[in-house]
């Protein structure tokens, strides 16, 4: 059965509703030490504020080993009434404690694929130990990461593991592109070399590399293009976000667009006095997108496209 796999169970894609297609409720990375998203109460408040504006779903792209607090996700989703899709997968090596990185590297390509598959089909591991306790909530996507303008050996191994997990389950693969770069390298590797259908590839952070010609080429492949904004850490290109979306829509690629907030720090949460936070996506960006592209295109970006991007005929 084709379904979107949430932390509370599988749902019909048509029930996903208005979706923040790339964000974080919980995450901890060395680059943002002291700004960890690790407060369940704040996550509930932030998600509830998103829900009050009509938000119905959020996809958390936090992968294995980065403080995703898997055991908290079902309660946060249930309390807010907002669907949550969780991720398995791995980020760049630099974001991991050396001891954990060594344990993960020791698994090898097929061992990593087995880890991803188990989290997609059996349940998310509740901590940072690959052999740790497993909860009932399952991942609904795989998150991996490229490098700045290229792919190193480890990145290729992790992406090969993600492709293997995709072929075993059907799960979509979302990619962190460092400042939006190397998207074509990733698409070539996953789609052309590893056989992942383009429609199962979600190319993230493309607003950070606002190249209209490249965006059109990527969209023409059939992959989904995920734009985030605004971002406290990458605000230099935020002003180009709407222009990027307008240019892709004008080229006939409205059906390939996804939008997310990508909140990665405690100071970026609206519920704790910072911001812009989850509500900004619907409070500010949705009206602007509706005005610029029309109501039909806005519905595609926030409702129809996420329902297709995260829908899987689970194997």
TrEMBL record:
UniProt cross-references to PROSITE patterns, sorted A to Z: PHOSPHOTRIESTERASE_2
Molecular function GO labels: hydrolase activity; zinc ion binding
Positions annotated to bind Zn(2+) 1: 22, 24, 143, 262
Cofactor note: Binds 2 divalent metal cations per subunit.
Alphabetized Pfam families for the sequence: PTE
Keywords: Hydrolase, Metal-binding
Residues that bear N6-carboxylysine: 143
InterPro entries: Metal_Hydrolase (IPR032466), Phosphotriesterase (IPR001559)
Cofactor(s) needed by this chain: a divalent metal cation
Source superkingdom: Bacteria
Binding site for Zn(2+) 2: 143, 176, 205
Listed SUPFAM superfamilies: Metallo-dependent hydrolases
Entry's family note: Belongs to the metallo-dependent hydrolases superfamily. Phosphotriesterase family.
Protein name: Phosphotriesterase-related protein
Species name: Actinacidiphila rubida
């Amino acid at each position: 059965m084709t379904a979107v796999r949430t932390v509370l169970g599988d749902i019909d894609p048509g029930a996903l509703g208005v979706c923040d297609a790339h964000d974080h409720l919980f995450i901890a990375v060395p680059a943002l030490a002291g700004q960890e998203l690790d407060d369940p109460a704040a996550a509930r408040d932030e998600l509830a504020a998103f829900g009050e504006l009509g938000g119905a779903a959020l996809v958390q792209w936090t992968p294995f080993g980065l403080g995703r607090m898997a055991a908290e996700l079902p309660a946060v989703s249930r309390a807010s009434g907002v669907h949550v899709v969780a991720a398995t997968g791995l980020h760049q090596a630099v974001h991991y404690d050396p001891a954990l990185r060594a344990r993960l590297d020791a698994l090898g390509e097929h061992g990593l694929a087995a880890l991803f598959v188990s989290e997609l089909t059996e349940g998310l591991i509740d901590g940072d130990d690959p052999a740790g306790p497993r909860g009932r909530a399952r991942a609904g996507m795989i998150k991996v990461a490229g490098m700045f303008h290229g792919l190193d050996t480890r990145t290729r191994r992790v992406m090969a593991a993600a492709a293997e997990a995709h072929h075993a389950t059907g799960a979509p693969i979302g990619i962190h592109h460092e400042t939006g770069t190397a998207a074509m390298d990733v698409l070539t590797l996953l789609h052309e070399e590893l056989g992942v259908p383009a429609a199962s590839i979600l190319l993230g952070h493309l607003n950070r590399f606002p190249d209209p010609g490249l965006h059109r080429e990527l969209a023409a492949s059939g992959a989904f293009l995920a734009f985030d904004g605004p971002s406290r850490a990458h605000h230099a290109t935020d002003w180009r976000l709407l222009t990027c979306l307008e240019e892709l829509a004008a080229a006939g690629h409205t059906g390939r667009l996804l939008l997310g907030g990508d909140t990665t720090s405690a100071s970026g949460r609206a519920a704790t006095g910072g911001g812009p936070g989850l509500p900004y996506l619907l409070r500010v960006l949705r009206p602007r997108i509706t005005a610029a592209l029309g109501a039909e295109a806005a519905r595609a970006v926030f409702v129809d496209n996420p329902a297709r991007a995260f829908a899987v005929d689970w194997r």
